[in-house]
Design a protein that fits this description.
Largest sheet: 3 strands, antiparallel
Shape: elongated
Radius of gyration: 22 Å
CATH architecture of the largest domain: Orthogonal Bundle
Mean pLDDT: 79
Number of domains: 2
Number of strands: 3
CATH topology of the largest domain: Multidrug-efflux Transporter Regulator, Chain: A, Domain 2
Distance between the termini: 32 Å
């Protein structure tokens, strides 16, 4: 791959301004192997413009609930030598559909239950006492056992 020219690259501040990520996040994602920067003779980072698409992908993937390892695996399937095409992105994100549908279903179920109880099994409200007499929810394990399964899954590490 040919070395990029100054016109083809962005500084850390420019990428931060365009992407909405803090410079510290850019450095973190670089150390994690999710994005790459070239260095000037003075050691300053210069990012190729394609990094903006990768950062947008990272943001979307994190909102979907992908872990950093899953994001890294997905990005590894994209071409380094050219800007990813619409087909590249479509192939990569097609596996998210089931995950998004499950998240949407869980959030809708939570929304519809919020007026009475979120399903914590806490017995702190009269409604919970009716829904969970004698704390039968405790037998199902820790946490908010009446929440939709998807909302009880462990959250990915930041």
């Amino acid at each position: 791959m040919a070395a990029p020219t100054a016109a083809d690259t962005l500084t850390v501040g420019e990428v931060a301004g365009r992407s909405g990520f803090a410079p510290s996040a850019l450095r973190f994602y670089e150390r994690a192997g999710l994005i790459r920067a070239d260095r000037t003779g003075g050691g300053q980072r210069r990012y190729r413009r394609v990094v903006l698409r990768r950062l947008a992908f990272i943001r979307a993937a994190r909102h979907v609930g992908l872990s950093l390892d899953e994001v890294r695996e997905a990005l590894a399937r994209l071409p380094e030598s050219r800007t990813p095409t619409r087909a590249d992105w479509a192939g990569l994100s097609s596996s998210w559909r089931r995950r998004l549908d499950a998240e949407i279903d869980a959030l809708l179920a939570l929304r519809d239950r919020l007026t009475s109880c979120i399903g914590c099994g806490c017995l702190s409200l009269k409604r919970c006492q009716i829904s969970n007499p004698d704390d039968v929810a405790a037998r199902s394990g820790p946490g908010a056992v009446f929440l939709p399964r998807r909302l009880r899954d462990p959250l990915p590490a930041p």
